[in-house]
Design brief:
The chain is of the alpha+beta class and 347 residues long. Helices cover 35% and strands 23% of the residues. Strands 1, 4, 5, 6, 7, 8, 9 and 14 form an eight-stranded mixed sheet that branches. A four-stranded antiparallel sheet has the order 11-12-10-13. Strands 2-3 form a two-stranded antiparallel ribbon. α2 packs across α3 and α5 runs antiparallel to α6. The protein binds (3R)-3-hydroxy-3-methyl-5-(phosphonooxy)pentanoic acid.
């Protein structure tokens, strides 16, 4: 291996789950399979510089928008320790991680998926540089997805573009619990250009961290039913993704969002993550769907922000509705227009 120093830079997008991952066991193994749209506009860019480590210096430093962030160090330390068995070179170098997000900091959009995915791609490229072994694109993405999963589970779905499945499901070839796999292009073209407008109802820290949230599924009274429903919803959704049946898509996607929140409403301790503005948006989306015939639907993450999904051919009308009727439920009227994207990029 080379003893040199170097620098690499990768960009990775966020993703939004259609069938949700909620509940895991060690080492970051999901208790049900999930599927997500890879996003495009919401991205993290990470530059990773390395040089031989001398014992006096810190193992790594993290910067966000040029500012040193000691607050991020425990999460990165844990990540590095977890992946060191798969990246033994990590111990021998000093790392400088410089990262920036395309979306506003503390907007309530988790940067952990895009952040861990970008860092994982950067590490796989460094591994190639140090070992002199050339990986092909699939090998590189597979390893990066595997590493990203150990940082933040859903991050393994942010490497590839389009629709990505994580977790064993007998109808998805190659699906497994260790990394995300891209659904092949046999799904209906309408989903390749789908939009996701993220309504920033509540910007700021999450009420429940996802680590605590996943933990709540252990001993949860509805855990087994939930995991079973997720598997069934994924089966139904796979058929819909091929057929392009939007009414059925909406039924499944909204049910999944509400299931996720239902799990938090019925855990011990329990959490109400929606804000009044969230509920008002969900209600208005359903009314609009009835009155307009357009295929606007919602999904939710583990927070108050609503993700509004709709096909490209309805985008002009839907955006007008969002701007005129929904934006005022958002903090400072803020929302982010995103769409399905193509995954990681070198920068
Ligand atoms: O990747 P984590 O551990 O932050 O979990 C995220 C889980 C959800 O975003 C709520 C759902 C999902 O599948 O992305």
């Amino acid at each position: 291996p080379s003893n040199g120093s170097g620098q690499v830079c990768w960009e990775a997008p966020s993703n939004i789950a259609l069938v949700k991952y909620w509940g895991k066991r060690e080492p970051q193994i999901p208790l049900n399979p999930s599927v997500s749209f890879t996003l495009d506009t919401c991205r993290t860019k990470t530059s990773l510089s390395y040089s031989p480590r001398n014992n006096a210096s810190a193992w790594f430093e993290v910067y966000l928008d040029g500012e040193r962030k000691p607050g991020f160090e425990p999460k990165i330390t844990k990540f590095f320790e977890r992946i060191s068995a798969y990246c033994p070179f990590l111990w021998d170098y000093h790392w400088r991680i410089e990262t920036s997000n395309s979306f506003p900091h503390s907007s309530g959009i988790a940067s952990s998926a895009s952040g861990m995915a970008a860092l994982a791609m950067a590490l796989v490229e460094v591994e190639q540089q140090l070992s002199g072994v050339k990986f092909d694109e699939i090998q590189m993405k597979t390893k990066a997805s595997f590493l990203a999963r150990l940082g933040s589970g859903s991050a393994c779905r942010s490497i590839d573009g389009g629709l990505v499945v994580w977790g064993v499901h007998d109808e998805v070839d190659g699906s497994n619990d260790l990394f995300g796999v891209r659904l092949n292009d046999s799904f209906a073209p309408i989903f390749k250009t789908y939009h996701d407008t993220i309504m920033l109802v509540h910007q700021g820290q999450k009420v429940v961290s996802s680590t605590v949230g996943h933990g709540l599924m252990h001993g949860h009274p509805y855990a087994e039913q939930r995991f079973e429903r997720a598997r069934a919803n994924l089966s139904s959704l796979l058929a819909v993704l091929r057929s392009g049946d939007l009414d059925e898509f909406i039924r499944i996607v909204e049910a999944e969002a509400l299931d996720l929140h239902a799990m938090m409403l019925t855990s011990d301790p329990n959490f109400i993550l929606m804000k009044p503005g969230t509920l008002q948006i969900l209600e208005a989306v359903r009314e609009y769907r009835k009155s307009s015939g357009n295929h606007l639907c919602f999904t939710l993450d583990a927070g108050a922000n609503a993700h509004l999904l709709y096909p490209d051919n309805e985008a002009i009308e839907v955006l007008e509705f969002i701007k005129n009727k929904l934006a005022h439920y958002c903090e400072n009227g803020a929302y982010i227009c995103d769409q399905v994207g193509s995954g990681v990029k070198k920068c």
